[in-house]
Amino acid sequence: MSASIDFDKYEVVIGLEVHAQLQTESKLFCGDSAAFGGAPNTHISPITLGHPGTLPKLNKRAVEYAIRLGLACECRIEKENFFARKNYFYPDLPKGYQVSQHTAPICVGGRVVIPTADGERAIQLNRIHMEEDAGKSMHDQDPAFTMVDYNRAGVPLLEIVTEPDLHSSDEVYAFLTVLRRLVRWVDVCDGNMEEGSMRCDANISIRLKGETKLGTKVEVKNLNSIRNVKRAVEGEIKRQITLVETGGTIMQETRSFDAGNGTSFSLRSKEEANDYRYFPEPDLAPFSFTDEFLDGIRASLPELPDALVQKYEKQYGLSDYDARVVCDDKATADYFEQVVSMIPKHKAVANWLLGPVKSTLNDKGIDMAAFPLPAKALAALIQLVEDGKVNFSIASSRIFPELLQAPATAPLDIATRLNLLQDNNADNISPIIDEVLNKYPDKVAEFRKGKKGLMALFVGEVMKASKGKADPKLTNQLLAEKLK
Known about the structure:
The chain has three domains: 10-292, no CATH class; 303-418, no CATH class; 426-483, Arc Repressor Mutant, subunit A (Orthogonal Bundle), CATH 1.10.10. The strands form four sheets. Strands 1, 2, 6, 7, 8, 11, 12, 13, 14 and 15 form a ten-stranded mixed β-sheet that branches. The chain has a three-stranded antiparallel β-sheet with strand order 5-4-16, with no helix packed on it. It is an alpha+beta fold and 484 residues long. A hairpin with a 2-residue loop joins strand 7 and strand 8 (119-132). The protein has helices at 60-72, 169-185, 226-245, 291-300, 305-314, 320-326, 330-342, 346-364, 375-386, 392-405, 411-417, 426-439, 441-448, 455-465, 472-482, and strands at 10-21, 76-77, 80-81, 84-87, 97-100, 107-108, 111-116, 119-132, 136-138, 147-149, 156-162, 198-208, 218-223, 253-258, 263-269, 279-280, 287-288.
């Protein structure tokens, strides 16, 4: 049936609601631990459980984190704020309501710039607001009962709400990738979707191309990875278009995505804002902050990745690709900055990070923050290559692995112990070159007739015969002289 459907005549409109769990030590309104894990119902207190007579108190660090992300997203920061009660019953919501921001989000507007096939595009944000998390219902612990763990209840969240400004699953994937890098970059959230510290709901609708009125939206929840968000969006787009084309009607509803089989299923009809009966939270006073407070947070922000990419391209001469990979995460960019502060060979340092270092991280299954080699050690190894004492091949294949095992050892000592220091003595290299040229008389004749690409063969053979110790630059010079 779907083979005859014209999917291209429809435009897809997508808005995202992303919840980012803040990396505070305690919860949003009490001192209970906000750490991930722990035995069920051990990070709780009467305040988390909403017992009568308990009063919440706002976590100042959570407010600072909200402002950090808002400034990074170019939002307008609201100085006058208050919380509201969002009323609904759910087993893992111990108070019977959630404390959130409704009409007064702390961050208004803003944007996130994403890469697309047609160049960069700014995705407009509606708001970023603070709220507390709910607990967690577990349906697989007991055959007869649903168990509830309240450890997560009250953990501070930021909800990042976009405008309906995305139009494909590829844009959704790019947005979440950029946003995850950003929340990690400004150090407000670890972005770990598998642990639930970053979660995404997608509101998806379709309309005929050229129309301006939005179609009926469907919210898809239960998305625990960026890849699964992309899969869920693609599946929902196909479902909606197929439904309309076969005479069906799209219902406003909330659906859950089953990552196992790639399909979604209906959970409930979608609530409207008035269903939640919002009203100002009576137990929390309104809060405000000064320009000085904002300026202090603004001054504490690191240089953001897009600005660093431009800096690396314009000032350091890196390619766009190299600059973006170095800025893929803050730990890599910080490490790059440390190394180039000791040896300002920016392209060489980038090559090492994108080559041997990245391969090591992949092999060990770790990220840059866990890379064991101090920046000083890598700088010393690169300096060996720059000084002509070893070539890159020997440095990366022989010295680098040894250095990883003993990071405190000087690379020069390793090269000396393994007899790897480069030979730049013409008297030693010249006889090896003679042997190579005598071994390939036909290739020498071809070279002299104009087949200059054979130079690489001769250099390679000399390096092999010298066990990688011949100075490549001197080898090329001597070969050129002997081949005249």
